[in-house]
Amino acid sequence: MSISFARRAAAALSLVVLIAPAAHAGDVTFQIRNNHPNAMRVELYSQDRDYVWPGDGKDFYLDDGETKQLPISCNDGEKICYGAWVDGDESTYWGVGPNNQESCEDCCYTCSGGQTEEIDLEE
């Protein structure tokens, strides 16, 4: 193999690596199960920046007994907390509650890829 061919091949490979889309190492999937007899709403809140999933005034909806996978793209190392509440009753909540207003224990996760264990929201 000639040196100029090897250089062209190396340059082409470098260009492909630069153009290829980068994976978001911080992508994570929250697994949430609604063990409450009523439907609930869920949002995921960054504790490191002003960001909410799914955003745009929307939330995730879980019927009673339903388990959902909630995949999000986030910054690697970012702290994400869930807030859930009974549909139509924001005074019955889990985690940080609606609008990220409450303190909680064990409702936050570090965004580092993979998925959470199943989060069971019960009465």
Report what the structure shows:
Strands 2, 3, 4, 6, 7 and 8 form a 6-stranded antiparallel beta sheet that branches. Residues 15-24 have low confidence and may be disordered. The protein contains 1 helix and 9 strands; from the N terminus they run H-E-E-E-E-E-E-E-E-E. Helix content is 14%, strand content 42%. The chain is mainly beta. The protein has one domain: Sandwich (Immunoglobulin-like), CATH 2.60.40. Strand 6 (79-86) and strand 7 form a beta hairpin.
Task: Provide tags for this entry.
9 strands, 3-stranded mixed β-sheet, 1 helix, Immunoglobulin-like, mainly beta, 6-stranded antiparallel β-sheet, globular, 123 residues
Quick description:
By secondary structure, the chain is mostly beta strands. It has one helix at residues 3-19, and strands at residues 28-35, 40-46, 52-53, 60-62, 67-72, 79-86, 89-95, 108-110, 115-122. The strands form 2 sheets. Strands 2, 3, 4, 6, 7 and 8 form a 6-stranded antiparallel beta sheet that branches. The chain has a 3-stranded mixed beta sheet with strand order 5-1-9, with no helix packed on it.
The CATH topology name reads: Immunoglobulin-like
The CATH level-2 architecture is identified as: Sandwich
Helical content (DSSP H or I, runs of 4+): 10-25%
Write down the overall mean pLDDT: 86
Shape: globular
Oligomer: single chain
Intertermini distance: 70 Å
Topology pattern, helix = H, strand = E: HEEEEEEEEE
- Reading off the top of the CATH hierarchy, the class is best stated as Mainly Beta
How many helices? The count is 1
Give the strand content. Answer: 35-45%
Number of self-contained structural domains: 1
